[in-house]
Every structure is written in C-alpha cells, then in structure tokens.
Write a structure and sequence with these properties.
The structure is a homotetramer of 396-residue chains.
Chain A: E1 14-19, H1 26-37, E2 41-47, H2 52-61, H3 73-82, E3 89-92, H4 99-108, E4 112-115, H5 123-136, E5 140-142, H6 150-160, E6 167-175, H7 189-194, H8 197-200, H9 205-221, E7 225-233, E8 244-251, E9 260-266, E10 277-282, E11 285-290, E12 296-301, E13 306-310, H10 318-321, H11 334-353, H12 367-385, E14 391-392
Helix pairs in contact in A: 1-11, 4-5, 5-12, 6-9, 9-12
C-alpha cells in the first residue's frame, strides 16, 4: 500500500539550486517542501531574489552557504557548473517571463531544470525552449503538480484500460476568488505580476490556472484539443488580463470519435478557493475528482451504483498505489502530490546520472506539454478576440 | 416556519382535467400528486390517451366518471366547458407537439391551463400561443417546477436584495445518463418521443432539460440571454436530436454590466441522474444549489466563511419560508416543489374566479417565459449549426 | 421504477377522521398531506381541538362539514360509528397522553386507527392498548414514518438477504437543537407539552425522537434490545425531561452472536436540525443512511470500494422500488415517506374491508412495536436513574 | 497565511535518531517524512530493528552511516551520548511495550524523546515514565498527531475564546475496518503486535485509536474525563484484545457544569478507513471535524446558518494560521499535521539547547497527556469487565 517513494534511499541526495523564491513567495516554499518530503534533494544554492539584500536574507534563512547565494541566475549557472560539487538540478520559481532565460542558462550549463508553470510568458519563448531542452539532453520538468495526485494517476490508468469506454466528454474547472477585488492596485505582490502582461504573458486566469486545468484533462484522458472557442472576461475594472474564461473544446479525433470538453477558470467567483475539478465521461462510465478532497475518485459505471474509490483503498490501482505514502483514510494533500513530481524527477535525474536515459513511460510533465499549454493560452485569447471563433491550437 | 400552503382551505377544490397521462406516463403521475398534495384540486375529467382502450382503463384507475373520460382533447374542451360543473383548469402532460393545440382548445373554451414544458415543439407555435393566452384572459402556467423549490426562491430573493452585489456569472448544468444507450431504438416510450423531432421539436437535451436550466438562471438572477454560442452533439449513433450541449451565454446588460454564463446539459453522462445544479456569482458573493439535495443553499459571501442555508433554518428568508411545508432538517423534495406551482396556480385561479386579476408579483412561470425558452432552444440549434457563432435570441 | 402507489386507484377513497391537529399543530398538517399525496383518503370529520372555538375554526379551514366537527373524540367516535357514511379510520395526532384513550374509543367503535408516536405516555397504557387492539380486530398503525423511506426499505432487505453478513453493530443518532434554550418557559406550544411529564410521559428526547431511532434500528436489522445502559441529561436548567441521552445497547443474540449498539438523541446540539442517522455493520459490509439526504444509501462491502445506492437508481432493490414514486435523481422527502405509511395502511384497510386479513409480511409499525418503544423509553430512564446500570427491556 | 514553519531556518538541523522503524513499518516512515518536511531534522542514527540483518539493510536504505546503525537502543543511547556529534533527539516508533525502556534509556542519556502513542503498554510503566521525564529535564513529546491539524487548533482556540458557550457535549469516534478479519492469525505484522497483550497492553482498539480519540477531545475542549462506562467487544473470534468499544464519558465539572461525552472506536466496521471524527457542542454553538477531510471545520452557531471554516480561509484564526503551510483550497493532510508536531518539537529543543525552558503555552502532547491516555485505556477495560460500571480515571 505504501509506495517506494517513502522508503527510497536518501543516501545521496541530489544537489539542488533555486531561482526566485525569496521571502514571501508562496510557490517557492511549496517547491522546497516538496523537494524535502521524500529526502531526495538538498538545497545548496540560490539566486533567490533580484534584490540583493532580500536574496542574502532569504539565503541565510534557508541555511545556504553565503558563497552560494547568487545575485543573478546567470552568475549562478556559471559558478555552479564550474564547481565539482555544483548543483545537479535547479528549481525555477520566478514569474513567468523569467522562466525561459533562466531555464536556458541552466540547461546550457548542463543542469537539470524543474520549472514552474506556465512554461513561459510567450509562445515564441516556449517554442525556443523546446529546442533548448532537446539540444541539452538534460531533464526538464514542468510542475503541473495536480498530475501527481494518486487519484489522478488512478483516473489516467482507468481511462487507458478502457474502463470508461470511449471518452466523449472531458470537463475541467478551476474557480478561485482571490482576485475578486483589484488587489493588484494596492501592492499585492502575487496579484501584481499575475495581472501584468509583461510578466505573465497574454493569459491571466487562462495562463495561471487554465493551463493546469487543460493539462489535467490531457494527462488523464490522453486527448488533445484541436481547437477552442473561448469567451474571456476582465470583470474587475482596470484589470489587464482575463480573470474569467469560459472555453469550449473540440478534441482531436480518436478511434473515429470526436470528444468535446469545457474549461471554466475564474479568479473572481466568491467562495471558491482552489476549486479544481475534473469530470470525464465515456460511453461506459464516468469519473469525477475534486482537488479540495483529493483522496477520493468517483467512478460511475453506466448502469451500476456509483463507487467512491479512495487513495490506498480497495479500489486503488497500481498507478495510484505507486505514488501513495500513507494508508487509506489518512489524507494526503497538495504537498504530497507536488513532492511526487520531485521524487519522480529525482529518479529520472539518477537514471541520467548513471548514464541511462529517461524512462519512456515516465509521467513527468515535459517541455512539450508546456508548449501545448502555451498554445492553449494563445488559442483562448485569439478566439476570444475573434468573438469566440473556433481556433486551432496548431495554427499558432 | 410552515407556510400557508399546508393549511390553506381545501373546502372548495378546483375541478381539474388532464390531457395525456395515461398509464405509464411518468410526468402525469407527478402532476397528479402535485395537484393533490395541498388539497386544492380534484381531478374530474381526462383525455388521457389517444388510444381509446388505454384512455378508458387509465380513467377507471384514477376513479374518473366514465362520462368524463374523453377520446380527444377537443371533445373534452367542448363538453367540459358546456357543463355547469365542468373543469376549471386542465393539466396538459402530452409530448411537446400537442401542447399548443391542446392549450389553445382549452383557453378558447375559457379553461385555465397548466402545461408541461417546453412550451411547444416549434417557435411558431410558441409565438401563437402567447397571443392565444393574452386574448383568453385565462391563466397559463408552464411547469418549470424547479422554480418552486424553497431554496431557489431564497436565492432569487437574495439576488434581488443585492446580497451578491452585481451578478457577473450564472452557470447551470443538468446532466443525465439515461440516454447513454439508444433506448429509442428498442421501444422505450419516454425515449422515443423525446428523441423524435416531430414530437419534441428541434431540441433534444436542449429542449427537454436545457429549458429548465435556462429558466432557472433567469428566475433566480433576473438576467436574460442576449445571445448564445452553442456546441451540440449527438453522441449516440443514429440519434436525431442533441444529447449533449455546451452553451456559452452573454446576458443583456444590467446596470452597465454584462454578465456571462454557461449551460451544460447532457443525457449521456454516466453517473448523473438528474444533476441539475445552479451557480451564481456576483461582485460580493455567490450561491450554489443542487437539485439532488434541494434543502440546502450555499451562500458564499466574499471574504467570509461559506454558509449553508437550509430550508426552514435560521437563514431562510421570507421567499423560502412562504413555500415551506415542514420543519428544517426534514427534507422536502421534487414533488413538494412541483406542488407549490399547483398551489400558487390555485391561488391565482381563485383570484380570477372571484373577479380579480393575477397578482403582479406572482412567481408562476408564464407563457412568455415559455417563449423565451423556445428561443433559447432555437438559438442553441442555430448557433451550433453555424459553428457555434453567437446567436441572438431576439433574432429568432 | 415507479411504484404502484403513485397510480393506485383513488376511486373509493377511505373516509378519514382526525383527533387533534388544530391550527398550529405541525404534525397534524404532515398527516393530512401524507394522507392526500396518493389519493387514498378523504378527510371528513375531526375533533381538532379541545378548545371549541379553535376546533370550529380549524374544521372550517379544512373544509369539514360543521356537523362533523366534534368537541371531543368520545363524541366523534360515537357519532361517526353510528353514521352509514361514518369514518373508516382516524388519525390521532394529539400529545402523547391522549393517544391511549382516543385510540381505545375508536377501536372499540370499530374504527381503524393511525396514531402518532410514541405509543402512549405510560408503559401501563401501552400494555393496555396492545390488548385493546388485539380484541378490536381493527388496524392500528403507529406512524414511525422513517421506516417509509425507500432507502430504509432497501437497507432492511439487504440485511435480510445477508448482504452484510451477521450484524455486529447498529448505531442510530437523532440530534436536534431546537430546545437549546428553554422555549417551554416562554409559551412555545410544541416545546411545552414535549417537556411536560404529564403530557409526554417519562421520556423527553428519549420519547420524542429516541423511539424513532430505536424503531429504525429494529426495523432495518431485525435486532431487538435485550438491555440498555443509558445516561440521560437535562442540560437546560429547569427542564423536567431529558434533552440529551447517550445509550448503549445489547441486542438479543441471533445466530449465536450478540450485536451491540448505541443511540444518541439530543435536542440541545446546536447545528442539528433533524439529524437522524443510521449505521449498521456486519461481518461482510456496512450501511449508512442520513435522513437529511434520504435518497442515498451508502453500502460498504468489506474489501471493496464504497457504493452509493440511490433511490430509483441501478442498485435499488425491490423493497425500495415498491415505495418509490419518481425517477432517481429527483429527490423524494419526508412527506413521501410518511405518505407511504398512509398508502400501505389504505391497502390494509381495504383488505380488511373486503373481509380479508392483514398481509402477514406488511411493513407497517404495529402496536407491539409501539410497546417495545415504550419499554425502550422506560428502560433508558430506569437505567439512567441507576447510574447507567444495564436494564432489561423485558423486566419492565 | 503561511506560517513560520514553512520558512523557518533550516541552517542547523537537529540530529535525530530512530528506534524501531525497520523496513515495512508504516508509522516509522511517517515519522521520517514528518521530520523532513520542514527541514528541521537530519536522521543520523538508528536502532531500526531487533533483527541485525534487517537493521543493517534498513540503515543502508536510509543512508545512515553504518557505524551509527545500532543493534539495540541501549547501545545507541550509550554511544550517541558519548559522541560530540551525537543525536540530540530520538524518535521511538516501536510497539508499545518498548516505549518505556527505550524512552528511559535516552532521557537518562540526556537525549530528547519523540515517542509514538500510546505512552506505554502498562499503567505502571506510564507512571514511571512521568517521573523519568520530570527528572530528566529533557523534552518528551507524544505524537498525538491529530492535534497538529490546523482546524483542530482552530477548534481549540474557539472553545477557549468561549465561542461555543459552555461545553456540554464532546463526542469522538474513530472507526476502522482493517481488522474485520483475523489478520493476526495469518502473519500480518501490524495486526500481530496490535492484538497481542504482551506488546500492546490491555487495550486493543481502545489503546491504538481510542487514546487518539480521547486526546483529541481533551485537546480541543480542555475537558478531562472523571469517569467512563465502557462496553468492549472482541467481535473477531479468537482475538485477544478489544476490536470495538462503546464508551460513555462524564467529564469533570467546569464552571458548575458537567459535560458528557461518548467515544466509539472500532477496527471491524466495514467501510471505515480512518474515520476519526470530533463533535463538540456548547450552549451557544457546535463544531464538527472529520479527519478524512481535515481542511474543513463546521461551525454551527445556535440560531444562525452553519459555516464552513477552511484552513487558510477567511474564518481561520491565529491558532490555525500559525500551523498552515499553503493557501486555502489546496489541501493539507496527515503528514503536514504530523510534521507540525516535529516542527514545534524542534522549536522546543532549540529553546532548551539555548539554555531556555519550554514555552508554557506550547501545544505539544506531553508525558502527562500520555499518562491520562493510559488511565483512559485502563478505565475502559476495568469498566467493561464490571459490566460497564462507571470507573473513575483517578482511581487507577
């Protein structure tokens, strides 16, 4: 019932660096906890802030050797790659516009990259980064962390095994309410960069959480959107990027069937904290999963009573069990799912370190997944600008 | 806490007739229970089936006087309007294509009409029926029964009072799974007429349940769709009408704001029985309601903990209390909500009988609401046929 | 899927009288709605209040012939039994202390009795009433209405079929909060008689809702308490009867096993409206049901995922289906369950009217069930007075 | 919103040892993950198994220096206390009967102890351990991990602030189903020692999970049981210790009121995984919390709608916020709550290391709490053996 991840060797932890993530950065703390949970990493270097004083203070707080607290990612990439005990991997947790240059610097210095989403702040950067990764031979992991949840892995395996029959519908929603008021106008740091096209890119909610919703659909169903019709709004006056999006999807055909889908993302829906929800329906059954209660997966076989599959419980399959740490009934959460990506990345890094190659059937989100996410953002924006006209992702 | 409806005088029940509703008809039995619950009606006549033998057997089963079991609605309208003790109102529970001619016959005979939804099987009939009703001076009630639920009344009042601020989003979904297989090809009566354009009209799921979803939005929010962009599917091979619809809505502006919405209806989503759900978000708070658990209303004020308002509980407002029959914690259901429409119709009929007029602020769904529903169906079909182009309801 | 009850003949409704139930009485209105829903009864006589003016006004409101509005139940029993069109059955909805004398009067007048719970206000009366019923040859139904819920019927059949294996645990709870403050001291009518030993008997919460909880356990499991150990409290200062009870149960052995149980009832647990809940565990599986959401039954087979059985859904068995009125997903509620008792009583009355006898396998709560409930109340009180000593029900 | 724990200095992690926890031990892996999550510890030594081969393999798997993998806890205590870089604290994760001797050895060697529950396998050992801890001046933490959940901290603060008024009822339940079959007879290691009096002590379910339930009640309400009346069962034939317990509690008076309570624990209730649930009712409101969904706390103020407080949401208080790692809506779970105890223990250890003393208002479960838990177990067993007679905890 308990996966290998909980007991895997921690003898030789991977040396990790971090770009971004100075004091006050929410997602950076998440990355650090995720890296620590299973004991596969040790954080030894950082370019934690573009503000030197803040960088220094943050490094001290994290117990970094002052010599390995850098003023810029460029300096860090150069210096660490020159050290015999330099970092083997780096976590990039900056605002979106820095993902590409930072990732490029480390990949070209031979360092593996674990990068927050969305991939970049522009489609052009995304395309370039795909090339950079391919040339580098290094590991690139995009932290679409929801795909680390055991019940999401369960769902994916069930779809692959045909339990649901042919998939006809896939729907995801990710409502929040934290931007219901114009926080970006009163100095909130998280709000400011996320609503700023220069740092976020063309997508607001679409980029920040829409890419998660989209990735979750593709991860579980294996379906890919051929085109989208989107209606984006900026409900808060003065906001520069969308804070609500209604999206209809047409997936590429599979087995002669064209499935359909919807995505709703919002940052202005009062009462919703991080209400990520996925529903998938096939000709023989359905699945439903909600992030706020992630240890449950509803499985609804056609013509039979609904079943509630629990992480670690009797109905859990191999894909779920292999990323489960504790017995059923004891809840795992967001950090555990996030840590699973880090742990699987550690496995991949060790495989590469030992001269091997990435396992073909690994489940880590890739740079190509990131590019697809960027096409999704751009397609939504383009469609919305054209009165919700269907827009092909591959046209962008 | 207990409304007048439960104790209202039953001394002079209204004489009711029924068109359609022979043995095996689900919705007819519902109408009869709804009419009985509060004691305001007595069923005395019927044209229960176009099959004379079935009509006779059904009438006997219901205890009707054989003389008042008619072979056709025309005959019934004629005969009953000539009797001194003739029916005062009639319930029309036939397939859609019969609504218009039957309603017309009774209205022109001076008999009030309670009619199942959708209004008619064509937009033309719907427009004609609006005129017929207006000329008749009789009551016409369309049984959009979900608007009879106490928590829906509660929601409506809360929106009107401005508790949610300006409404920006309204979303309804109504998934079912009973047509996941081609039941209409194996003689299922309910499935057959609902998937037959000649009897249902141009909408499948859109007409059967989409109109409920749409009416619920308009009832609660007071918003009306200016246009829709719809993607309709027939996922079951050979099916003639849509069994799944994704619809985006643009509501007419109100107070300088344009709210947006979505509707999802499906008859092919395994695990969904009658999953009607409504979500409304404003600038100051949200509401969420699910038909399967109708005694609860989630109210989510921005920046405060969610509150679960219960029918009859401490947070119930006047609108809810006035249609509540039993104490909080004891569940009311579908039949009670349906009965509320019948009881309110009885009040209206008595007011008209006594020479008065319909109360201005009554909440009964009208023929105009029915016409708006028919425009919604047609707009969805038209939009879907034009690759989901935005289609104005008032253009039809 | 829809039971006979919804379409059963209403041609010859049973003539019904009512004792108690003047204006403002909650449960009387419930009985009347329950009697009306399926069309098997017509209310024609009443002794609605001991206050003549109130009796008259209530009768008028209900449309009773003034000649059949009586000043006392004795007068009513006498007069109605003398009429050729006299009542065939009577509903007794008075405070507890009147149940016995009223029931006796009607039974001895040859009139069937439908009586609210608990059976009487004293164990002595209860024992006497059992004899009275047996001698009378008339039907006596105690309205333990929760046993009319389809999912409770489902549970009972599942236990009988051995789906759960041998039952080892049965737990019921019924918390409310409406007596958290001393309402009886400020004139609340419902609170006053329920907290008054002279009208309620020795049990407060134990009598009013504890008997429901106990009956539900016995109905579903077929187990009967051999003894109880109870700790009763009166948390509200000045209250005369228990407003909270913790009870442990030892059931009589069955198949060499002794199952155990608990009952918790409270009227002072804030946030609980009518939180009746039942849990049953056997060696092979468990069941869980909550009255507030009565259309669901959790079935938890050992070693398999939990299943959510829905009224009318794929997992519903014959016992559930036979008391189901509308399709799955449309909620039925409290009134429907209550009406099922009335409808089944109507079937029994017709069988007796036609010279037959009561079906052996009927599911109506009997006078003997009522006596067992009275023993349960007395055993709880006796045990609590003896420092929670185990007290046998058959010792009383 | 994010607590200090997530960003606290990790510069000087505490050197930790572990006793027990060789391969296959569930709870040991939990302790290690909990110790790692916030970065306050580094595991450097272990006496991981009494089987030398298993001890060695486990140590290697965890990356321990072979020199610091010991064959016994005595040897480890001796050797580590002699090293300048010896462990500062030890985690004891053995079966219960080893807790006392191991804790004694380390405390007397000047090493802080973090020990799994229940405190010991006998009341005598427990009393002795209290003395040992007091004499040692070292920190002793009992890992009643559920008290680390943010919503449990929230509940405790709410009770202390009087939000609920005077507490009248406290109820906990902790049902499981994993021992529904006699696993101990087929070699299951976890089941074997837990059902063995020699290793577990006199309590089965009572000891293993009953102490958690009891501690949770005392932690949140501040109430302490004066006496219990318990009915223990061994439903699985051949089992030596209780696998189900029904317990009634009388709490010591507070403010002139005597609150009552119940505890139900079971290991044989099919469908329950780790169904820990707490309900607390006062004169002004109630609280309800369920471990499986730990990020929610229901708050039910009397006479107002229920409120759902979420970890990190608008209603979260200081006590909750201070142990919260990630934003609301992203679920935290069991490991995070467990880690909070480790992190708070780290703070205490650092305070003691720096020559200070334990903060008076710390929330870590103490050896005295452990002794109270042992009295609870013994009182339940004694009471059950005396036909559920009320048994005072302070009589033992």
């Amino acid at each position: 019932m308990v996966s290998a991840s909980a007991t895997a060797p921690v003898a030789r932890p991977i040396r990790l660096g971090m770009v971004g993530g100075g004091q006050g950065a929410f997602i950076a703390a998440v990355h650090r906890m995720a890296a620590r949970l299973d004991g596969h990493y040790v954080l030894v270097a950082g370019a934690l802030s573009s503000d030197p004083e803040r960088a220094r203070a943050s490094a001290a707080e994290l117990g970094l050797d002052p010599d390995r607290s850098y003023g810029s990612f460029e300096e860090m990439a150069r210096a660490e790659s020159a050290r015999p005990d330099g970092i083997e991997a780096v976590s990039i947790v900056t605002p979106n516009h820095m993902h590409y240059p930072a990732a490029k610097a480390f990949l070209e210095a031979g360092i593996h990259v674990i990068c927050d989403k969305p991939l970049t702040s522009s489609l052009e950067d995304a395309k370039a980064l795909v090339e950079t990764v391919r040339k580098s031979g290094r590991l690139f992991v995009l932290t679409h962390n929801y795909s680390g949840y055991p019940m999401i892995r369960q769902a994916r395996q069930m779809v692959q095994e045909g339990v649901l029959g042919d998939i006809i519908l896939a729907q995801a929603e990710y409502p929040q309410d934290w931007l219901s008021e114009p926080l970006e106008q009163s100095g909130n740091k998280q709000a400011s960069w996320r609503t700023d096209p220069a740092r976020s890119g063309v997508g607001g909610a679409t980029g920040d959480i829409g890419t998660h919703a989209y990735q979750l659909i593709t991860f579980v169903t294996g379906l890919h959107a051929e085109s989208v019709a989107a209606d984006l709004d900026r409900f808060v006056p003065g906001r520069q990027l969308d804070d609500n999006a209604h999206v209809m999807l047409r997936f590429a055909e599979r087995n002669g069937r064209r499935a359909k889908g919807t995505i709703w993302v919002s940052q202005v829906a009062p009462g919703n904290e991080n209400g990520l929800k996925l529903r998938v329906y096939g000709t023989k059954g359905g699945l439903e999963w909600v992030q706020a209660d992630p240890n449950y997966l509803w499985y609804t076989p056609l013509g039979e009573p609904k079943r509630l599959i629990t992480r670690g419980g009797a109905g859990a399959n191999q894909a779920a069990a292999s990323v489960t740490r504790i017995p059923s009934g004891h809840p795992e959460g967001y950090l555990e799912a996030f840590a699973t990506l880090y742990t699987e990345a550690a496995g991949a890094i060790r495989a590469l370190r030992d001269g091997g190659s990435l396992p073909e059937n690994h489940l880590l989100p890739t740079v190509e997944d990131g590019l697809e996410g960027m096409r999704f953002i751009q397609a939504c924006v383009t469609s919305s600008n054209k009165d919700a006209a269907w827009t092909r992702l591959d046209s962008l």
